[in-house]
Amino acid sequence: MTFDVAIRESSFMSAIILFHSDGDILLAWTQEFVSTDPLVGEAEAAPLALTKASDLHISTLLFQGDSQILMESILLSYLQGSTTNLAIP
């Protein structure tokens, strides 16, 4: 599963794509948010992607995003045992 955002003039559009292990696209979602900060956009898209995976009862997941700050924060939160709060610097 991968997620990303596209920043617009007064909002951003998040895209979440769930791939099969062979590379085929299984599902995709989009959602618009009001913000123009790229980190805020990534921080909104990541939990949305994880919620979609949880709703589908996916137990094993390769989770990808292109914001190093956010991905490190997600990993740190996971390693510290948190499943709800992300420590975004």
UniProtKB/TrEMBL annotation:
RNase H type-1 domain: residues covered: 14-74
Domain of life according to the entry: Eukaryota
Pfam entry (one): RVT_3
Alphabetized InterPro entries for the sequence: RNaseH_domain (IPR002156)
Gene Ontology MF term list: nucleic acid binding; RNA-DNA hybrid ribonuclease activity
Protein name: RNase H type-1 domain-containing protein
Organism: Morella rubra (Chinese bayberry)
